[in-house]
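Hi V.,

Quick status before I head out on leave. The structure for the redesign project is tokenized and pasted below; the design run finished overnight.
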């Protein structure tokens, strides 16, 4: 039995329209997907690659190209040429200098998915100094 991970390459110039479900393997996007990508172990979008749709329920994503849609993944790495236009829900996140996100980021840390709350504002005591003159 072959235990090597499945890798599917979508070649440059290729356009796929519709939902892509890819359980148990990696998809490398060099062309364009116009539709949602779901249930993929690993998604790699190279510099000229593009996904126009949501990328949901993935294990990890490496983004060098563009994704125009929301992402829900365990881990996302955005390289310097990577651009996400959409919201991100993630546990582990790395963005290298030059990478961009145009949307909101929600980080979940394992099972402790508590909303972040800012610390209460601290008040600074005021001191009145009489002016002599």
């Amino acid at each position: 039995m072959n235990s090597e991970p499945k890798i599917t390459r979508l070649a440059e110039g290729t356009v796929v329209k519709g939902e892509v479900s890819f359980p148990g393997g990696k998809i490398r996007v060099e062309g364009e997907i116009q539709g949602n990508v779901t249930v993929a172990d690993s998604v790699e979008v190279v510099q000229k690659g593009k996904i126009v749709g949501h990328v949901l329920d993935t294990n990890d994503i490496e983004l060098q190209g563009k994704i125009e849609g929301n992402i829900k993944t365990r881990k996302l790495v955005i390289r310097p040429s990577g651009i996400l236009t959409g919201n991100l829900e993630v546990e582990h996140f790395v963005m290298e200098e030059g990478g961009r996100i145009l949307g909101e980021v929600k980080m979940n840390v394992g099972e402790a998915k508590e909303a972040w709350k800012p610390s209460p504002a601290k008040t600074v005591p005021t001191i009145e100094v009489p002016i002599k003159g």
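Above is the designed sequence. The CA atoms of residues 44 and 62 lie 5 Å apart.

G. will cover questions while I'm gone.

Best,
W.
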